[in-house]
Amino acid sequence: MHASTSSPRPLADSADPAGAPVGGHRPACLPAWDRLQALAATPQPPLRDRLATADAARSAALRFDAAGLRLDATRQAVDLPIWQALLALAREADVAGQADALRRGEAVNATEGRAALHPALRGDDDPAAPWGAAISAAVRDERERFLAAAERVRSGAWRGHRGLPIRTVVNLGIGGSDLGPRMATTALAALATPAVAVRYVPNPDAWTLHDTLRDLNPHDTLFVVQSKSFTTPETRLMADTARRWLADAGLEPDAQGTHLVAVTARPDLARAQGFDPAHTFVFWDWVGGRYSVWSAIGFPLAVAIGAAAFRQLLAGARAMDEHFWHAPPERNLPLALALLSVWNRDFLRCPTQLVAVYAERLRHFVPYLQQLAMESNGKRVHRDGTVCAVGTEAIVWGGIGLEGQHAYFQLLHQGRHRVPVDFIGIDTEDTPLPLAERHHRLVRDNLLAQAQALALGRDEAQTRAQLRAEGLDAATAQTLAPHRTFPGNVPSNLLWLPRLDPHALGALMAAYEHKIFCEAAIWDIHAYDQWGVELGKTLLRTVARDDGAPG
Ligand SMILES: O=P(O)(O)OC[C@H]1O[C@H](O)[C@H](O)[C@@H](O)[C@@H]1O
């Protein structure tokens, strides 16, 4: 990432000496923050005017390419001076230095005294990796173990106690031990083997597990118990029930070994709970749960799509890492996502962020992103403990865009909230359905039409003229016009994947990881702890004791 000054500097090559403390700034005290506030207070032309003028420089500045992904941010409510001030904010907040600290394995998760080295899970082929050869070797060894096991399940070589090949893998886990692999398994369903069904059960509500298990044969079912901590009560209960279900089918505990896999950062606890170390895959405390899909937590995904496709997912993420670390700031796609988001959140004061995916197979993307963004950056204090004077994370919501258009999009067009939108689309689809190309074009055109409608809107005079052209008399046109007027000026990003394959999905996920990192770096907050969630976990123990129920 090169600064936009005369001395370009990639993001990975911070001039800060190794180990120098980073961050600790108050974003609202930075000169660029003042400048952005002044710009936000200056009346700005509506997006419809900006888009009507062919401003080639603005248009070029707000388009980005990275790892095969394209971002068109020309519908954001920014001009070149605002964009320059946002880039200055990234410089003044030393996003580059903070990115270096993360890669060097510093304890950037300071409240838990840990590193946050999820990029190492996909970057172990780099001999000069700043996190060191020992970490790369551990990542590689464990990946080879769990991918080989996934291939054995997939090919039918992994047998249950009675010698049957596995037909169904049931993932038991919640939060980061569910959302990432579940999202990716659905997104890459086109690659899934028909030989093994992969199901995800995140919810200890008895119905959910019952509904999953009732048609399954225990003798060809493999449970994958995923839990970084191996203490999450929801997951422990589901694992207990799975064991009972196996036992009820005649598989006593000593016959359950090949029907149970554990994935955890606490193999000692898994062993104490009776899991066979040969069927236990590990990751490390420097991988946050919501960043863990790249580790052995991806085991069920690897069963579904195969080891080669899983490696492609890692390669896509790695390509985005390389872009993020080495592209100059003004061309840096994840940094752009972050800066535009900070502009919308803190200066245009939009409290929420809609993510609209235009691909049914991405239907679990928003819940995955909600955890990634809101568990990371839903914070109220700066790193020095003082209360934030800035907005921090927006509420992320959304889902399948085409369905939203026929439901809640009305509020976007005419409600009282201004909701920035990330539209996520797919360039090329190759489904073998008759008329598939027409289906795909309709989906893509809808995305474009919505982005355009939200940006441009239609003012009252245009609406009256339109109604008159439709043959209404002047009085009726006058009465109806306010109801059929659309303020527009809704900012959006268009993020295009070349196709929905593992490489592009990996790049998309890593782009959002880095975006979230940059936001936290600018807001000067800790992105890798989640003490709010911990409070709920602690109180659960108290409530369960008071209730007389087993904790
Ligand atoms: O993987 P586990 O240790 O079972 O934790 C599962 C989930 O627990 C909590 O909700 C945390 O906030 C999440 O980040 C984590 O992913």
Let me know the CATH homologous superfamily of the largest domain: Glucose-6-phosphate isomerase like protein, domain 1
Tell me the number of structural domains.
2
**Cα radius of gyration in angstroms:** 25 Å
Strand content: 5-15%
What can you tell me about this protein's structure?
The protein is an alpha/beta fold and 551 residues long. The protein has two domains: 29-116 and 313-456 and 490-528, Glucose-6-phosphate isomerase like protein, domain 1 (Rossmann fold); 132-305, Rossmann fold (3-Layer(aba) Sandwich), CATH 3.40.50.10490. Helices cover 45% and strands 10% of the residues. It is built from 21 helices and eleven strands. It has helices at residues 31-41, 47-52, 56-61, 80-92, 95-103, 133-155, 179-187, 206-213, 233-248, 267-272, 299-305, 307-326, 333-347, 365-377, 401-405, 409-414, 436-456, 460-469, 474-480, 502-523, 531-546, and strands at 63-66, 69-72, 168-172, 197-201, 221-226, 260-264, 280-282, 352-357, 395-400, 421-426, 492-497. It has a six-stranded mixed β-sheet, with helices on both faces. A hairpin with a 2-residue loop joins strand 1 (63-66) and strand 2. Helix 7 (179-187) runs antiparallel to helix 14, helix 12 packs parallel to helix 20 and helix 18 (460-469) crosses helix 19 (474-480). It is globular and about 80 Å long. Residues 2-22 have low confidence and may be disordered. The structure holds 6-O-phosphono-alpha-D-glucopyranose. Residues 174-177, 227-229, 232, 235, 289-290, 375, 530, 533 line the site of 6-O-phosphono-alpha-D-glucopyranose (G6P).
